[in-house]
Design brief:
The chain has eight helices and no strands. It is an all-alpha fold. The radius of gyration is 17 Å and the shape is globular. The mean pLDDT is 90.
Length: 220
């Protein structure tokens, strides 16, 4: 099953090249296949527990959202709507991941407060770097809030239990957050750069693969 890791990254590389050439239909197909690799990898490593099912749900939702985000380039007249729907599906995936680790976290109120504070600081900084419509800003606050909370609870779980599961899962969640920050800056910033797009995608796929890999070490 480990061949799925390099396969996912290789297909993602071909997808990036197609997107750079503005071949958006082949790009969205390749992106969907690359994302399907981490979903299959998750199924292969999962032991079928309740927590694993929530993480698998998060991987599946991520795969669907991947396709939706790139469909905005195919259906440009509906681009903003497709992008928002894609973000909503990604948000659902983050909620699934959060639901998976939340029951195992200690000091939930303190972690929640830390998440709210970190979200406020991060969004205040992001709003100085980007220009976006009100709807995108509202979605952004909710979306970033969810993934920051996910990271806070994952880190708290790792501190309490530095097992392989939490180490891989938390590393994946952190890479996912970094990927999203780059995506926001590159989408709504003053200048779009292909290098940032590449960084965004590589961090994203690495994050999802680490989350899928964490299932190999999950026993609850």
């Amino acid at each position: 099953m480990y061949f799925l890791i390099p396969l996912c990254l290789c297909i993602a590389g071909f997808f990036i090249l197609q997107e750079k050439k503005e071949n958006y239909v082949p790009a969205v197909i390749l992106k969907g296949i690359a994302s399907l690799c981490f979903v299959i990898f998750g199924f292969c490593t999962s032991q079928g527990t309740a927590t694993a099912k929530l993480i698998i749900a998060g991987l599946i939702l991520g795969c669907i959202a991947d396709v939706l985000l790139n469909l905005r380039f195919v259906f440009k007249e509906k681009g903003k709507l497709v992008f928002l729907v894609g973000i909503l599906v990604f948000l659902s995936g983050h909620i699934a991941y959060l639901a998976a680790v939340l029951p195992m976290a200690q000091n939930k109120i303190i972690v929640l407060l830390a998440g709210v504070i970190l979200t406020s600081v991060l969004m205040k900084w992001l709003f100085t770097k980007i220009t976006a419509e009100k709807a995108f800003k509202i979605f952004g606050i909710v979306y970033i809030g969810a993934i920051v909370l996910l990271n806070c609870f994952a880190v708290r779980c790792t501190i309490n239990d530095p097992s392989s599961f939490f180490l891989f899962f938390t590393a994946g969640a952190i890479l996912f957050l970094l990927s999203d920050i780059i995506l926001i800056l590159n989408t709504f910033g003053s200048e779009q750069r292909f290098s940032l797009r590449v960084s965004n995608l590589l961090l994203y796929y690495a994050g999802q693969l680490l989350i899928a890999l964490s299932l190999l070490y999950l026993s609850v």
